[in-house]
Amino acid sequence: QVQLVESGGGLVQPGGSLRLSCAASGSIFSIYVMRWYRQAPGNQRELVAHISNGGSTVYADAVKGRFTISRDYAKNTVYLQMNSLKPEDTAVYYCNAVLISSPNGTPYAYWGQGTQVTVSS
């Protein structure tokens, strides 16, 4: 059993900042990648940022230069620092992790429950 728990969402004014956290717990042997997705009302879920086990990162064009993804490997936690927030960043943000629960396990993707980010004046 694996759980991903997100925190840090909320209401912020345009130009403000928020930091999201996602902690993975349970039966974890190794986490391959951790990602943040977001879904705005009426839109499909989209990838925001990705960080591999080696630390390489990928960002959606819409957030490049404003958002930073990072990992604390010891705590199985991923962060998303969001700066210069815009109203179009308003969405539910979901954490995703691909991991194995045993040395020879099959990789499986887990999702958090989501945290609301609202950017509005």
Structure description:
By secondary structure, the protein is mainly β. Helix content is 0%, strand content 57%. The chain contains no helices and 11 strands. The model has no long low-confidence stretch (mean pLDDT 96).
Which key features would you list for this structure?
121 residues; mainly beta; 7-stranded mixed sheet; 4-stranded antiparallel sheet; 0% helix
Strand content: over 45%
Structural class: mainly beta
Number of helices: 0
Which consecutive residue ranges, at least 5 long each, have pLDDT under 50?
none
Mean pLDDT: 96
What is the overall silhouette? elongated
* End-to-end gap: 40 Å
Computed CA radius of gyration, to the nearest angstrom: 14 Å
> Would you report the number of β strands?
11
Q: Helix proportion of residues, in percent?
A: under 10%
For the sheet with most strands, the description reads: 7 strands, mixed
Compile the SSE list and pairings.
Elements: E1 2-7, E2 10-12, E3 18-26, E4 30-39, E5 46-52, E6 57-59, E7 67-72, E8 77-82, E9 91-100, E10 108-111, E11 115-119
Parallel strand pairs: 2-11
Antiparallel strand pairs: 1-3, 3-8, 4-5, 4-9, 5-6, 7-8, 9-10, 9-11
